[in-house]
Amino acid sequence: MRVEVSVEPADDELRSLLNWLRREPEIRRTATLEMRERAPREGEMGAAADVLQLITDNGWNAANFALALAAWKRTRPRASRVTVRRDDLVEALTDCSEEQIERIIRLLQEGQGDGQRGAES
């Protein structure tokens, strides 16, 4: 499974998130993490901002990832918007509420099919 995570504003925040996730033993064991330039989507010109790409294996635990993501976000000194994308499904993490975390877990566990759900919180 491929998952893209973006952070707005991006500056050094995406690299901080990458380093945070790489320190999580469970995530490091079950996912490959790398920074990439996201390919432009339909209607976009040129390459978009950097994204963090995760490629997971069968031992993947979506809840561990979502909780690590929320823990990182809570440490940030300024407000940011974290977006998790799997295929055409998108969820945003803005306030780390239980509801947002649960939606991200569902997106990562089920996440099959077309369309977009819950992009705005």
How are the secondary structure elements laid out?
Blueprint: E1 2-8, H1 13-22, H2 25-30, E2 31-37, E3 50-56, H3 62-74, E4 81-86, E5 89-93, H4 98-109
Antiparallel strand pairs: 1-3, 1-4, 2-3, 4-5
Helix pairs in contact: 3-4
Account of the protein in words:
By secondary structure, this protein is of the alpha+beta class. Helices cover 34% and strands 26% of the residues. It has four helices and five strands. The protein has helices at residues 13-22, 25-30, 62-74, 98-109, and strands at 2-8, 31-37, 50-56, 81-86, 89-93. A five-stranded antiparallel sheet has the order 2-3-1-4-5. A hairpin with a 2-residue loop joins strand 4 (81-86) and strand 5. The longest helix is centred in the middle third of the chain and has 13 residues, at 62-74. It is globular and about 35 Å long. The two termini are 24 Å apart. The relative contact order is 0.20.
Helix proportion: 25-40%
Element-level helix/strand string: EHHEEHEEH
Instruction: Give the amount of beta strand, in percent.
Output: 25-35%
Our count of helices gives: 4
